[in-house]
Specification:
The protein is an alpha+beta fold and 193 residues long. The protein is built from six helices and six strands. The relative contact order is 0.12.
Length: 193
């Protein structure tokens, strides 16, 4: 075999196997989703916790983009500090593992039953939780990406211009530096990003 033929075959091999990798990634996505559903069902049975609201689409809750926690506790009973975050303010939650950072975020998003959570100038209740969540974006500690392009993961199948979102998140230059920009294919752990 000539060196040219060997190089050609090496360059061709990844594309030849791409459909099988796509199938494998889709199977892993389905398996991961099934595992999460099992975990959620177990969590709901064990803790009696239920998502506030109906968990469906809702019109966005009107009012200022503010959130406040007063007298809240973690699920383990640890008291959380009172927090007030106003529109446009940037806050970093810092602390060692187990002090309640994730609990604070879950309370703010209406993913845990609140007592003492105010959002957009209203107490957070089951009646307005879906409308509040319609204003939020949520990235868990261990994100899982769908097999496909960065555009597909960001848009979740919806059409639209992502430029302003990328600028708001201060990552437009990062995406533009990627070899294929928004068309960059991601692995399930964000490989390629």
């Amino acid at each position: 075999m000539t060196p040219e033929a060997g190089i050609f075959l090496l360059l061709l091999a990844p594309e030849f196997h791409q459909p099988m990798r796509d199938l494998s990634a889709a199977w892993h996505d389905k398996a991961a989703a099934s595992a999460v559903m099992d975990e959620l069902a177990t969590y709901a049975q064990d803790s009696g916790a239920q998502l506030m609201g109906r968990g469906g689409p809702a019109p966005r809750l009107s009012g200022p983009a503010s959130v406040a926690l007063h007298g809240c506790f973690t699920p383990s009973g640890r008291a959380l500090p009172d927090i007030v975050i106003t529109a446009g303010e940037r806050v970093a939650l810092l602390g060692p593992s187990g002090v309640g950072k994730t609990s604070v975020l879950r309370l703010m998003a209406g993913l845990e039953g609140p007592r003492g959570v105010d959002v957009a100038g209203h107490p957070l209740t089951a009646d307005n939780a879906d409308a509040w969540r319609a204003r939020l974006g949520w990235m868990p500690q261990s994100p899982h990406f769908l097999t496909g392009s960065l555009r597909h993961n960001l848009g979740q199948g919806r059409e639209g211009n992502l430029t302003s979102a990328l600028e708001t998140a201060a990552v437009r230059s990062v995406v533009e530096a990627l070899p294929q920009g928004l068309a960059t294919r991601l692995g399930e752990t964000g490989g390629g990003l």
